[in-house]
Every structure is written in C-alpha cells, then in structure tokens.
Amino acid sequence: MTDTPQTAAAPQGLSRRALGQGLFAAAAALYTAALAWPIFRYLKSGTQGADEGPQVNEVNLGAEKDYLPGSGKLFLFGSKPALILRRKDGHFVALFATCTHLGCTVKFAQDQDRITCACHGGVYDPDTGRNIGGPPPAPLKPLVVSTDGGAVVVRRA
Amino acid sequence: MSVHAWLDERIGLADFMSFLRKKEVPDHRHAVWYFFGGMTLFFFMMQVLTGLLLIVYYQPGSDSSYGSVQRITSQIEFGWLIRSVHSWSANLMLLSAFFHMFSVFFMKAYRAPRELTWWSGMGLLGLGMGFGFSGYLLPWDQLAYFATKIGLDVMEKSPFIGKELATMLRGGADVGVITLQRFYALHAAVLPVLFMPLLLLHLWLVQKHGNAAPPSVTEKKSVPFFPTFFYKDLMVWFLCLNLLALLASLWPWDLGPQADKLAAAPDGIHPEWYFMSQFQLLKFIPGKVGPVDGELLGMGLFGAGGVLWALVPLWDRGSRGRLVNLVGLGAVIVLLVLTIWGYAGVAGKG
Ligand code: HEM
Ligand code: FES
Question: CA distances (Å), B155 to each of A29, B163, B169, B278, B295, in order?
Fold first, then answer.
C-alpha cells in the first residue's frame, strides 16, 4: 500500500491518505453534530415561554371595601409582581412593581407614603409612579384600575 | 513554547503518556474479552451524560415525578431519546459488566497482584446494580413502584442486615414519597460520588498491572495498550454507540400508568433481569425447609455464594484452576437457569 505512487492513485493530486482523512473528518463531524444537535434542542426547549407565562390582560382583586385608604399591597399580574394602592382620598393606583433600575420588586412604605426599593434605595411617587430618588432611571410602568360594581379590576394600560 | 511543552512542564504529560504506553495487552485467541471492561466504561460515560441531562427536567415528588417524566418524553424536544438512551445504556452497562466479570474470572485475572482490581470491580458491579435499582423507581409508574416493592422484599429476606437495610432504603414500612426522595438522592448523588473514585482506582490498577493472560496461553505475544489497543477500544465504542442509538430509537423506553397504591400488583410483575435470579429463587423455595424459614435459607445460600465468589483471589492462589472453572461454570448455569425459569414463569402474564 505505502509503496503505491500517489500520483498514479490520484491524478488530481489528491492522495489516498488525504481522501481517507477527509472522509474520516466528515464522518466525525457528522457524528458530533448528531450528538450535539439533540442535546442542544433538548436544553433549549424547556426555556421557551418559561418567563412570559400565559398572557394576562385583566385581574380581579376583590371587593373595594376591603382596601383601607392609605394602604397598599403586592399582587401578581400574570407572572409579574404589581402594586395596588388605595390613596387617602379613596381612589386606586396600580403599577408594575419591577424597579426600573435593576429589576428588584419594590414595596409601598406606608409610614413615608412612598414606594421604595430596598436594593439600592430607589424612591418612587405613589400617585404617579415617577422616579423621585435614588438610582432608578424611569417611572414604574402603570396599570389601569376600575372599580365597577364594587370590585377592583386591574387591566393593562 | 508549544501548548504541549507548556502543559508538560506543569503537569508532567510525558510521565502520563509513558504510563499509558507502558501497559501491554496480551494477544491470543481469548483476547476479545479484553474489550468488555472498556465497553462497560463507555456505557457508564453515556449514563453520566444522559443522566446529567435528565436532572435538568426531572422533578422528584409523588405528583411531579411522573408528570415530569411524561413531560420529558412528550414535550421536551428529544427528551424521549435522552430517556431511552439512559435506560438502554443502563442495561447494556450491566450486561457488559457481567460479561467482563465472568471473563476475568475464567481467565483467572484476579490472581496476585490483581486482587484489589477484582474487589474494586465487584464493588463497581454492586454499585452499578444499585444505580439500576434506584433509577428504576424514579419515573414512579406502576411497574417501577411494584418492582421496587418486590426488590426491597427480596432484600428484606436476606440474613443479618437484610431487614435493616430494606427499611432504611424504604424510609419506613411502605414504599412511598420518602422512598422516592431517597432513591433520587442515591441515584443522582450518593452512588456517583462512591462510583467515581472506585472506578478511578480500578482503572489505575488495570493500567499499573496490565492485562493478565489466562494461564492456558503460553506464547507471550502482546500489543501496546497505547495507541494500538486504545484505537481498537475506540472502534468498539463506536459500534456500541451505533447499537445504542438503534435500540434507543427503534424501541423507545416505555412509561406505564402512574403508580397507584390502591391498585393491585399487575399480573406478571417482575424485577429487572439482573435481579431475576434472586426473585425466582424466592418464588420457588418452600416457606419452610425443615425448621428454617425457606426464604431466609435461599437468600443465605445466595449470599454465601456471592461471598465465595468475591473471595476467589484468596482460595485460588494459582493451583486450583480446575475447581475455579467448575465453580464459574456452576455459577453461570445457576444464574442462567434461574433467570430463564423466572422469565418463563411470568411470560404471557403481563
Ligand atoms: C461496572 C463498571 C466497570 C467498569 C467501568 C470496568 C472497567 C474496566 C476496564 C476499562 C478494564 C480494562 C479492560 C479489560 O480488561 O476489559 C477493566 C479490567 C478489569 N476489571 Fe473491570 N470494570 C467494571 C466492573 C468490573 C467488575 C464487576 C469486575 C469483577 C468483579 C471487574 C474486574 C476487573 C479486573 C480483574 C480487570 C483486570 C483484567 C485483566 O487484567 O485482564 N471489573 N475494568
Ligand atoms: S433595583 Fe431598585 S434601586 Fe436598584
């Protein structure tokens, strides 16, 4: 075998050895892909739709009379945390509770009548959601509240 | 400076390579058996790979176990394939480990200085069966549930520590969620932690002593392990990979109905094949043999046989070759007969 003149076996200058190596490399690449592709798809398929959850457009939060003026609490709008506040004059405000700085969940600090973020000291105005202190660069995203027939209902803005 | 030289200076690559090259593999007409240890190793590596993938989606728990396996097989892309490969490769790993053990036995490769290689190998096989037993429960389907019940009952009948061990594994008197949690801990954490160092010891010893030629082989031909035999090993692994892919995709592993404690055991229920011989022994042995409990006697005999088997390097130090062959043949026949008999007993019933 090794004595065969290479030019005779492969006139185009492609030696047998190179051909063999090429075939081997191609087969190896094929097998690698056949192993890697299912693993890649397998690991990827669980992540689809994991962070969004089903699309929610409206949440019913129960009877209006259960909310004391000046109070506030967290609830889930779909998979996202949100705040419902009843102001002292009796009207409702609803905001997404994800801090616009680095994404912590904010809280309503009733004693200061402010929305605060514990992570880096962000402060928001409870009537509008405007960022009024600390690092947050933008206001909290608003939701729309209606109180039809005594029930508090929150919808997308 | 080349990468090779850089690494060599720091971790002594050259020493490692000469350690690999030092070993010779005897070349004779029984040499084909030298592949089985390597095959076992290959299937074990497949278990590690697919097992790590399965724990990404598996959720242990009385409700979530079944549901998550169902999700893996029906919703996660290629999940059915990963699970099927894991189940098939588990069986092939144990099958090749058994072949490996018997070939080592008949070639008398356990003789000095390879006693520790033999014992570490026995340990690996025991842990391997533990993997199989604990893993079988995890999908929490009807078959898994009852096979585990039976397996633990078999264990319960073993003398001395049998009862204690079975209760400990079960986490109580009945197979339940606590058992499931324990088996998951065993299967995915405890056993791997025990298996890996033992495997390294085993492989290091094999490398250190080289493969033994059976006493019947007199001509001293051999090939270097690295690279000659190593490439042959790789070829065999390649065949194993193709076989595994075929089996796993043509006969994807089944998932039965969810385990239900109120349901009666299905007809023809039996454990996996590597526990079939013990199962059959308990089935046919009468309740009382003279004054002693029949099941206890049966498992006692089985256990004593196992101990004799493990101690072969001590009772055969080179002069009892014929006796060893007879014992080995006897063991093969007993195991085969019990296993085939066991399958005949459940055939057509489930
Ligand atoms: C369960 C996992 C196991 C793995 C991954 C494994 C792996 C290997 C490998 C790769 C070899 C070298 C190739 C060969 O001789 O076949 C070997 C040799 C050996 N194994 Fe295992 N083995 C396992 C189980 C066992 C069992 C159950 C026994 C016996 C009780 C055993 C006893 C031995 C002995 C004595 C040798 C040396 C054989 C010789 O010198 O020719 N091993 N093993
Ligand atoms: S994340 Fe809220 S202030 Fe930084």
Answer: 47, 7, 10, 9, 11
Q: Which atom of ligand 2 is nearest to the CA of A102?
A: 1
- Could you tell me which residues of chain A have a Cβ less than 8 Å from any Cβ in chain B? 31, 38-39, 41-46
The fold of A58-156 is Rieske Iron-sulfur Protein (2.102.10)
Inform me whether the pLDDT recorded for B88 exceeds 60.
Answer: yes
* Cis ω for the linkage preceding A11 (within 30 of 0): no
Question: Is B162 within 8 Å of chain A by CB?
Answer: no
Q: Is the CB of A109 under 6 A from ligand 2?
A: no
Q: Where are the beta strands (DSSP E) in B138-244?
A: 222-224
Structure tokens at B21: 């090259």
Q: Is the CB of A107 under 6 A from ligand 2?
A: no
CATH number of the domain to which B79 belongs: 1.20.810.10
> Could you give the CA distance from residue B210 to residue B26 in angstroms, rounded to a whole number?
9
The order of strands in the sheet holding A123-124 is A107-109, A114-116, A123-124, A131-133
Looking at the CA of residue B124, tell me the nearest atom of ligand 1. 1
Spatial distance between the Cα atoms of B135 and B133, rounded to a whole number of angstroms: 6
The verdict on residue B232 lying in a domain is yes
Query: What would the pLDDT profile of A56-98 be if each residue is shown by its tens digit?
Result: 899 999 999 999 999 999 999 988 999 999 999 999 999 999 9
A78: left (phi over 0), alpha (psi -120 to 50) or beta: left
Summarised one tens digit per residue, pLDDT across range B173-198 is 889 999 999 999 999 999 999 999 99
Query: Per the domain annotation, does B298 fall within a domain?
Result: yes
Is residue B12, in this structure, part of any structural domain at all?
A: no
pTM value is: 0.82
How remote is the C-alpha of B168 from its chain's centroid? 22
Structure confidence by residue, pLDDT tens digits, B59-68: 999 889 999 9
CA separation for the pair B122, B116 (Å, rounded): 10
- Omega of the bond prior to B227 within 30 degrees of 0, cis? yes
- Domain positions in chain A are 4-45, 58-156
CA–CA separation, A10 and B12 (whole Å): 42
Pairwise CA distance, residues A104 & A98, whole Å: 6
Count of domains forming chain B: 1
Question: Quick check: CB of B121 below 6 Å from ligand 1?
Answer: yes
Domain for residue B52, yes or no?
yes
How many CA atoms are closer than 13 Å to the CA of B89, on its beta-carbon side? 26
Contact B78 A38 (CB under 8 A): yes
- For helices B230-250 and B79-106, the axis angle rounded to 10 degrees is 130
